[in-house]
Design a protein that fits this description.
By secondary structure, the protein is α+β, with helices and mostly antiparallel strands. The protein has three domains: 35-214, no CATH class; 228-368, no CATH class; 382-452, Roll (Nuclear Transport Factor 2, Chain: A), CATH 3.10.450. Helices cover 43% and strands 25% of the residues. It has ten helices and 15 strands. The chain has helices at residues 8-72, 76-99, 108-129, 136-166, 170-175, 184-194, 228-238, 297-311, 363-368, 382-386, and strands spanning 2-3, 6-7, 247-252, 258-265, 268-275, 281-286, 316-323, 327-336, 339-351, 357-361, 393-404, 410-420, 425-431, 437-446, 449-452. Strands 3, 4, 5, 6, 7, 8, 9, 10, 11, 12, 13, 14 and 15 form a 13-stranded mixed sheet that branches. Strands 1-2 form a two-stranded antiparallel ribbon. Strand 4 and strand 5 (268-275) form a beta hairpin. The chain starts with a strand and ends with a strand. Mean pLDDT is 83; it is low at 1-8 and 177-182.
């Protein structure tokens, strides 16, 4: 068949060609649009890098200034105010540093420096709030930290000027640094990192304090080491397993050296750690899938307390618990002469189908426990401590306790269990020496248990 002199097959080829050209044009349009979007995104990212870089240089300069001000503060009120300012500025600078595309590890020491400055300053602020002035060592620490902050700020300022002179993007220059190439960018980063090499060992009440690196387990201090065979017998005994159901897997290093044993039972894998010193149960897990929930809370607590006795952990009192539906997870703390010692923490998980222990963790107990703490008579009586409460809280009960501080020091306190006007339970901890609030926790309570936050 002919159509205006063209065969049908030829017409079909023309149509295919037309569709192909049209598709190419459409694809080209989409591609061009896509490239425009990519360029817009690159410009946005570069703008973010530039802003973060400028703000980082400014922020570290603010850290230096705030640290220098802290050197001249004498009153606890001014120390608290400036220490809070230092902590805020350092935390903000660390956040800006994390937004820049530095290669992994290239600014690690600077990041750690800013984190520690923030935390150390927060600890000084807490001390000042309790009416304490800066000590000579603390003032010298601020002087050293200020010197390091000043060096970093100067390096960043020089680097910012060189980047502007290069007329290249911040992201491109930062990512181009080459440890083996001797580039000026890498040399600038090295200068910044070297300025935080010789910092003082900061010993204070915080999680980054140098004293925590030297902390050793108190519960195993002075106890003789046992061998693998003795530890294996202990593992079988506390879990009430038959000989041969567990076998040696490996040695565990760290602050609490231990032997690890594993085994398979009832479709799950058991792993249990026994300390080398003294043969104390350190932790265990059982991955067995529980079948339903047959035991109630009281029955599970009884099973947990029987297990703690087999472990040799006596005088333990339950504080909070969480019901996962398959297991009851209970927190226990050591009790000495009616004083609850929260640092001596043990967590026990009991399967609700048969009462089997499926989870156990005693690291807090082993690191902190001692049979007989020196508990001085409170300098502040209970009535004075209760007077620290806000009128918005109604006191329900009180007792003496020991709580850990941010730096894992111990604080002797009154634990005041209160209720707010909306029915929320609140725990207020007031120091027995100072009468000042040390900590406040809110209890989240529902049908699944109680959680303190």
């Amino acid at each position: 068949m002919k159509l205006k002199g063209l065969s049908l097959s030829k017409l079909g080829r023309i149509r295919v060609l037309c569709f192909a050209v049209l598709g190419f044009l459409i694809l080209g349009g989409f591609t061009a649009k896509g490239w425009r979007r990519v360029n817009e995104l690159e410009r946005f990212i570069e703008y973010t890098y530039q802003r973060s870089f400028i703000e980082l240089a400014t922020g570290i300069g603010a850290v230096d200034t705030a640290l220098q001000k802290g050197l001249y503060a004498t009153s606890p009120v001014m120390v608290a105010q400036l220490a809070s300012e230092i902590s805020h500025e350092a935390a903000a600078a660390q956040a800006l540093l994390s937004q820049l595309p530095f290669r992994t590890g290239s600014m690690e020491k600077t990041s750690q420096f800013l984190t520690q400055v923030s935390d150390y300053s927060a600890a000084l602020s807490r001390r000042a709030a309790a009416g304490r002035k800066l000590e000579a060592e603390e003032t010298e620490n601020l002087r050293t930290l200020a010197s390091s902050a000043r060096s970093i700020a100067l390096e960043l300022g020089d680097l910012q000027a060189m980047i502007s002179a290069q007329k290249r993007s911040v992201g491109e220059i930062i990512m181009a640094e080459n440890p083996g190439g001797g580039s000026w960018v890498y040399e600038s980063f090295s200068e910044m990192e070297s300025s935080v090499q010789n910092l003082p060992s900061l010993v204070y009440d915080g999680p980054f304090s140098a004293h925590l690196d030297k902390k050793t387990a108190r519960a195993t201090k002075g106890l003789e080491d046992i061998d693998v065979k003795e530890a294996l017998e202990k593992a079988h005994s506390v879990l009430q397993l038959k000989s041969g159901q567990l076998s040696f897997a490996r040695e565990v290093e760290g602050k609490i050296p231990a032997y690890c044993f594993t085994g398979h039972l009832n479709g799950g894998e058991i792993s249990v750690d026994i300390t080398k010193a003294g043969g104390l149960p350190l932790g265990m897990t059982n991955t067995r899938v529980q079948q339903g929930a047959k035991l109630d809370t009281d029955a599970c607590k009884k099973k947990a307390e029987e297990f703690l006795k087999r472990c040799g952990y006596g005088n333990m009192t339950a504080s909070y618990w969480i019901d996962t539906g398959e297991a009851l997870l209970i927190n226990y703390a050591y009790q000495q002469d009616g004083v609850v010692c929260y640092p001596d923490l043990v967590k026990v998980g009991v399967a609700r189908d048969n009462g089997e222990i499926v989870q156990f963790e005693a690291r807090g107990y082993i690191l902190n426990h001692t049979e007989k703490r020196d508990l001085p008579a409170p300098a502040v009586d209970a009535e004075t401590a209760k007077a620290a409460l806000t009128p918005d809280l109604t006191l329900k009960s009180d007792r003496l306790c020991i709580i850990p501080s941010p730096g894992e020091y111990e604080r002797f306190c009154y634990e005041l269990t209160c209720e707010s006007k909306d029915g929320t339970h609140v725990l207020v901890y007031v120091g027995t020496e100072t009468g000042i609030e040390e900590k406040i926790l809110i209890l989240i309570e529902d049908e699944n248990g109680t959680l303190a936050v």
